[in-house]
Amino acid sequence: MKLIIAGAGDMGVHLSKLLAGENFDCTLIDDDNERLADVGANCDVMTMVASPTSLRALSDAGAAESDLYIAVTPDETTNITSAAIAKALGARKTVARIDNFEYIDPTLPDVFPKMGVDSMIYPEVFAARDIINGLKMSWVRQRWDVFDGELVLLAIKMRTCSQILDTPLKDLCGPDDPYHIVAIKRGNETVIPGGWDTVEDGDLCYFMTTKEYIPYIRQIVGKEDYDDVRNVMVMGGDKAAVRVAHTIPEYMNLKIIERDEARCYRLNELINKRNVMIIHGDGRDMSLLRDENIANTQAFVALTGNAETNILACLAAKRRGVRKTVAQVENVDYISMAESLDIGTIINKKIIAAGHIYQMLLANNVSNVKFFMTANADVAEFLVAENSKVTRKPVKDLGLPKGITIGGLLRDGHGLLVSGNTQIQPGDSVMVFSHDVNLRKIEKLFT
């Protein structure tokens, strides 16, 4: 499969490393020779020094034969133009990174497919969605609604107060129980658990359940003393903060603290909501945080462009009693450090966007791909085809490859948890959690 990526910035480099590592024929285009030199030395990808909007350059790069053209330069106009040219040359699919929410506003006409841009990626929208999902449940590290909320995947940190520690999963997650533990992150290791595995203090466990049993999950993991989030502080007024402000529930109060005075004025123009306040100041200033009543704040979100600042600010907020902290960590090398410091929820826009782009490389029966960086795992929804391998035997007899588990499925519009005795049927939509297994290999089981 042939791929072309335009733009050797953070996202372009991350995608190049991800896709080249899976043996795609990948070419990276940028007009900066130094940026490309660094990439070529670190991963197996072909590089080309050229303008992404050059017709000759895209022709020479093989746009006509490409399966996917990805434009992720810092300039959205360049990305849209580049993707449109690639499509006109014959690229099968094109995707462009943008910075203007209007282009993906569902209330406005979608004109871009006619121009040759099949999909648009606005990373800050994806990041805001993950942040809001996390804020809705203060005791959860991550939440992901599967099949439009028919099933829910919850990542929860285990503490000594949990009722399910040190008990084999076969005694906890039977066919009739209202949840499954589909993965466990223990230290630097991710485990796809079997019946004899146990949950230990400090584990990050991934629970698959249905909405009505979320209160039960909260009870058995000992998180009932966590206050629901009502007051939120955000440090940094970037585009992700704007999207958070526009999508935050009305019952939450949001304060955005921004150092740049001009940006504060701009934020006041962009955000006109009664439950959102813009404050000019430094979010690292403890006296300012005390004045803004951090003692009565349930969630602190650090969204500056500096990973170290965000991590330290979250640690300071935790010392002040804030239980729910979210840090934007764009430097992938810092993610493991943030995890070891028990920061809470970690947001990385590159990895979030990569999941949406990766989905375009899979078959039409695969949707809603998400990369869980904390567990080094992928989750995806697979539509089961007639006569596919997974329909021939109950799940326990399928001989699924090590490193994957089926957490649940959607049948006739209803979410169902999957046990070893479940018989998957054609037309089911199945949620698969995989660790160190290529999704392109898994999709063969469902086609």
Question: TL;DR of this structure?
Answer:
Helix content is 28%, strand content 26%.
Shape field: globular
CATH C-level label of the largest domain: Alpha Beta
Counting DSSP H or I runs of 4 or more residues, the number of helices is: 14
- Major sheet: size, sense and barrel closure? 6 strands, parallel
CATH architecture of the largest domain: 3-Layer(aba) Sandwich
> Which structural class do the helices and strands define?
alpha/beta
Which regions contain 5 or more consecutive residues with pLDDT less than 50? none
Q: Indicate the percent of residues in helices.
A: 25-40%
Q: Count every beta strand, where a strand is a DSSP E run of 2 or more residues.
A: 22
Fraction of residues in β-strands: 25-35%
Mean pLDDT: 89
Tally of individual domains? 3
Distance between the termini: 19 Å
CATH topology of the largest domain: Rossmann fold
